[in-house]
Amino acid sequence: MLNCIAVDDESLALDLLEDNINKIPFLKLVKRCKNAFDAIEVLQNGQIDLIFLDIQMPGITGVQFLHSLKTKPMVIFVTAYKQYALEGFELDVVDYLLKPIDFERFLKAVNKASELFTLRNKPQVSEEPLVDKISAIFVNADYSLVKIKVSEITYIEGLKDYIKIYTSTSSKPIVTRMTMKAIEEKLPTPDCYRVHKSFIVSLDKIESIRNLKIKIGNAQIPISESYSEGFFKSIGQ
């Protein structure tokens, strides 16, 4: 069960949100909030897992409100304005719904939230490292949680605050807002190894290595000096 609040300055919008929320068995509406100040009070008094948040509100906008939170619940933006979609992506919201909301689209968004909540709160049954048991990872891309099989990853390229994940099943990389350190922590180290500040490679996808360059398909991936010793040890050289 996800405890949620709906934040919107329009009563009709709150009515529609409440009606949709009440149709979903795993959602519990804790409170309707007319502004960000009401929402802050609710967050201080109890555990909220998900916020349905309008953007254009008087006083404090939804974006300003979200920026102000030290600990952020999952957020689904609900707005009539398309131009905030990029900012929503940068704030790592679960989804971005445009008014008027189609129920099927609403259901898709809350299912994403439920899946993400389950992933974040899945209990660990063992204190042993789970590295060898990881078969897939999930990343946020195009306002969705995208599942990527580790066995399909060929290599990963870092570009400032974004990364490109190349796979054997798609001609286009999956682009997500994440640091190289963050994706490195998600990946099983025996299968994927960082060879450069901007590159992680899948060891079983390497075709050849020559002059400190790794060939994977058409890509030539450099091996930096700072990573070379550990990399070559990992492949028994």
Automatic annotation (TrEMBL):
Annotated positions of the 4-aspartylphosphate modification: 54
Keywords from the UniProt entry: DNA-binding, Phosphoprotein
One of the record's GO molecular function terms: phosphorelay response regulator activity
Domain Response regulatory: 3-114
PROSITE patterns: HTH_LYTTR, RESPONSE_REGULATORY
Gene3D superfamilies: 3.40.50.2300, LytTr DNA-binding domain (2.40.50.1020)
InterPro entries: CheY-like_superfamily (IPR011006), LytR-like (IPR046947), LytTR_DNA-bd_dom (IPR007492), Sig_transdc_resp-reg_receiver (IPR001789)
Domain HTH LytTR-type: 137-237
Protein name as catalogued: DNA-binding LytR/AlgR family response regulator
Annotated source species: Arcicella rosea
Lineage, opening ranks: Bacteria, Pseudomonadati, Bacteroidota, Cytophagia, Cytophagales
